[in-house]
Amino acid sequence: MTAELLDLTPYGGVVADAAWRDEVRRLARERDAVLLAHNYQLPEIQDIADHTGDSLALSRIAAQSDASTIVFCGVHFMAETAKILSPDKTVLIPDARAGCSLADSITADELRAWKAEHPGAVVVSYVNTTAEVKAETDICCTSSNAVDVVASIPADREVLFLPDQFLGAHVKRVTGRENLHIWAGECHVHAGINGPELAERAAANPDADLYIHPECGCATSALYLAGEGIVPAEQVKILSTGDMVGQAKASKAKTVLVATEVGMLHQLRKAAPGVNFEAVNDRASCRYMKMITPAALLRGLRENADEVHVDPETARKARGAVQRMIEIGTPGGGE
Ligand code: 13P
Ligand code: SF4
């Protein structure tokens, strides 16, 4: 999906009031649909969903659900992953233009060329990839189980990790693995949350905990701050979005600085109303995630749109890698 060529104006003109909520719930019942929402969705979409969670949790819920239709309020690769796991179900995304700059950072052709340079390497792809890339992958992972996935691979095997360079650096740091090669992709939203900004915010709030998503450009700086004792190490936590919610529920901190997409703040504030959660960068908003508007959801349920299709042969090749992903690691938040 080439964002520059698409008109990305979201569907609008619908207010998320009580009548909207009643109509969405009625249509979901009528369609035998389960509504799933990622933690970066608009608050009103998170609140109407049956389940809100991180990528891993939502993939697992989608795979286990008895509903005949899955409405995925998230971005396209997430809905595609649900379709790969449940090819017989109808999978809808309320706006198929909701792409992902990270998933766009590697194509299947580029991956095939990279594999040819490293014969015998195990390919680990982040779930933020297209179905075609997953079809060339041995094991998929999400941010909540990337370390466990890589640790499950025999130490003497080379690993190709893609496409996120910051998550890759985090995994390399934690596993201490030298034979891990990392693709130089990034998410424009998380890459923009940078080290100097984090250091400045941490200096102004010395008692605050720091919750950092490993896709962030500032993850290395956060560990530097901890390593140098500038921020006590126990205050720095590198977490998937679901694990942030788990951490928030047990938090004793007065203030938590959150380095990830700003949609996350809604679940955190619900999970721990007594804690002051602040974004490290309040401009870190993913325009793709925010395309799932109240109007888009209503349209999707009314028109059975946008239906997600994955070529059956591509889905067959990708399924093993995605299944391995949902089998590895502790439950992601939202389950
Ligand atoms: P999580 O797997 O932590 O939910 O991360 C998600 C992400 O960046 C989706 O775009
Ligand atoms: Fe993709 Fe980044 Fe948006 Fe997540 S926040 S959907 S990785 S562009």
From TrEMBL:
4Fe-4S: is it a keyword of this entry? yes
Task: Kindly state which keywords UniProt assigns to this record, in alphabetical order.
Answer: 4Fe-4S, Cytoplasm, Iron, Iron-sulfur, Metal-binding, Pyridine nucleotide biosynthesis, Transferase
From what organism does this protein derive? Actinokineospora soli
Q: Which Gene3D superfamilies match?
A: NadA-like
Name its pathway: Cofactor biosynthesis; NAD(+) biosynthesis; quinolinate from iminoaspartate: step 1/1
Give me the gene this protein comes from.
nadA
Q: Which parts of the sequence bind iminosuccinate?
A: H38, S55, Y126, V127, N128, S143, H213, P214, E215, T241
Q: What is this protein called?
A: Quinolinate synthase
Detail which positions bind [4Fe-4S] cluster: C100, C187, C286
| Classification via Pfam families | NadA
By its UniProt entry, which NCBIfam families does this protein fall under? nadA, PRK09375.1-2, PRK09375.1-4
